[in-house]
Amino acid sequence: MKGKKMDKTADTCPYGSPDNGCRKTQAFVTRKEKQSGQCISNALSGLLEQKAYHDITISQIAQKAYIGRRTFYRYFQTKDEVMRYTISLLMDDFADTLRKNHAEDLKGISQSYFAFWENHIDMLLLLQKQHLLYFIEDDMPELIRDVAVKINHIPPETEWNPPPAEMEKYLYMFHFRLAGFWKLTLIWCAEVPRKTPEQMSALIEEIL
Hints:
This protein is mainly α. It folds into two domains: 76 residues, Homeodomain-like (Arc Repressor Mutant, subunit A, Orthogonal Bundle); 126 residues. It contains eleven helices and no strands. Helix 2 crosses helix 3. The longest helix is centred in the C-terminal third of the chain and has 26 residues. It is globular. The N and C termini lie far apart (61 Å).
């Protein structure tokens, strides 16, 4: 009876609706799927502020999200999947930031990049504190490439067939810049006080 009652409240999640922060992903298409995915993601984020990641259970996530375990497993199989979904939502927000700022050159992209993390600094510090940055780092090349495709900075992989030499040069440059940006991000987030996005953008232009 208790589980059934929780399932009935799934559509009135206190963490918000798909129109309040939820981004379209390949996994979830319908309004209800997006709302449930966002709700579960926010529930896990809330629990991370209270306890260690390895101590969090599926039951606790479901309870925090006001859903039953059966509803949870309709969308995710593990809490790692929820964490990866949370990161994908972050990257969708990053793509939106680049679009809104019309960021195309190095200066615009780097300034938008640090402005984005400035707005999400609590999540970044939380992931760092919980030793969960690997959820970003392990998939970073794919995550950033997806962002680049979404903002039309590069074409989809199926539509891009450059000569091997050009592809090799692109891959080296891509990973070089990606690693540099990420290491700078970790140094920057630990600074007190932190540099502004404008200052970081100027620093990167000077370095590169």
